[in-house]
Amino acid sequence: MEFRDVLLSRRSIRHFDGRPVPVELLRAVVEDAQHAPSWVNAQEWKVWIATGEKLEAIRREYARMTAEGVKGYADFTPAHRDQWSAMAQDNMKTFSERRIAAGLLEVKEASQAQLFHAPAVAYLTVPKGASLWAVLDLGGFEQTLLLAAAARGIASVPAYNLVKYPDVLRRELGIPQCDALAVGIALGYPAAVPLNDFRSTRRPVDDILTIV
Ligand SMILES: Cc1cc2nc3c(=O)[nH]c(=O)nc-3n(C[C@H](O)[C@H](O)[C@H](O)COP(=O)(O)O)c2cc1C
User: Fold this and answer.
1) N or C: which end of the chain has fewer CB within 10 A?
2) Secondary structure, 3-state, 183-203
């Protein structure tokens, strides 16, 4: 695939079908992602991938806690909506309204509670107290991983919701307390459901670009 085709083919998939992703393919995607650049080549990220029985145990616990209304307590504390920039609030409002209008809010919430039915979830960590540079690098690594997956025919969604109960992940995956769980990436193959037809939009480039 041409790079631009990979770029345009990647979009968030929020309901996966039952097919597992071969372990060798998951490993190859992470190897590809390791080409991401980082400050002084520090490469402070780590990847923990849950599949099979381990992932089912996480899925059961997340579904139970979500059903009981346990509020998320992610290691990266999400800022309250009031503290978001006007641009972020505006984008989120448009995004939510479009999803509600399409009748997909509850459908999305239900799938999300089941870890989007993904056969594999990659959890990305950085050392707690890492510099802003390390977090910036982790974002680059995340995007490289998403594109590497797309190039190999694997669909994905990066999600805060996948790391909202970090103690469950520490317990099941043996992630030490010194590593912060930044984001989860659900990986798999798209189910043929309307939720996966939903498209996000982008601001006009002139809203964000200055060339002098
Ligand atoms: C750090 C991060 C966290 C996200 N968390 C969630 C989430 O919890 N649930 C969800 O459905 N999507 C989540 N998303 C996906 C975004 O909503 C999505 O990337 C955005 O709307 C753009 O759509 P696209 O990925 O299809 O291009 C997250 C994305 C990022 C980068």
Assistant:
1) C
2) EEEEEECECCCHHHHCCCCCC
Beta bridge partners of 123: 48, 184
Per-residue burial over 182-211, b = 16 or more CB atoms within 10 Å of its CB, e = otherwise: bbbbbbbbbbebebbebeeeeeeeeeeeee
Ligand 1 surroundings by CB, under 6 angstroms: 11-12, 14, 95, 112, 157-161, 183, 200
Specify the DSSP class assigned to residue 103. T
pTM: 0.95
Residue having the nearest C-alpha atom to atom 5 of ligand 1: 159
> Would you say how long the chain is, in residues?
212
Summarised one tens digit per residue, pLDDT across range 45-69 is 999 999 999 999 999 999 999 999 9
CA of 192 to the centre of ligand 1 (A): 20
Tokens read off for 198? 């939903």
Domain parsing of the chain, residue ranges: 3-207
The CATH number for 3-207, chosen from 3.40.50.20, 3.40.109.10, 3.30.450.20, 3.30.565.10, is 3.40.109.10
Q: 93 C-alpha to center of ligand 1: Å?
A: 14
